[in-house]
Amino acid sequence: MGRELFERRPRGVVPTSVAHQLAAQVSAAPGRAGRRSGSGCPRPDQSPEPAHVAGSAELLCTRLLPALAPLTGEGVRLRVSPGLTGDLLDGLRGGRFDW
User: Fold this and answer.
1) 14: three-class secondary structure by DSSP
2) Is 27 exposed, middle or buried (0-12, 13-18, 19+ CB in 10 A)?
3) What is the mean pLDDT of residues 72-91?
4) pLDDT at residue 38 in the model
5) 46 exposed, middle or buried (CB, 10 Å; 0-12, 13-18, 19+)?
């Protein structure tokens, strides 16, 4: 995305205004969150591809997964990958992760 979503603080991380805007967009359109852009709507007999979310284990467990959990009840599928900063940034740049 080219924008910072979280700011590191002494007691953890906090979302930036960009992260809040993204969360609002995702929650407003849960049916689109599980699809990659450009893939179009899945056929009724197909499940949408899972959104591949990556981050530090602490961030995933304390912030992202609790915030995204309600979307799974609406059919959004998630693939979650915890990791270290360097590997996560390389994966994001390489297109391995959606978020």
Assistant:
1) strand
2) middle
3) 88
4) 43
5) exposed
For the entire predicted model, the pTM comes to 0.51
**Backbone phi, then psi, for 71, in 5-degree steps?**
-70, -30
Question: Which residues have CB under 8 Å from 65's CB, separation 6+?
Answer: 80
Q: What pLDDT score does 29 carry?
A: 54
User: Which helix (H) or strand (E) covers residue 7, if one does?
Assistant: strand 6-9
Lowest mean pLDDT among 5-9, 31-35, 92-96: 31-35
Tokens 């969150």 correspond to: 33
DSSP annotation string for 34-93: TS-TTS-PPPTTSPPPPEEEEE-HHHIIIIIHHHHHHHHTTT--EEEEE--HHHHHHHHH
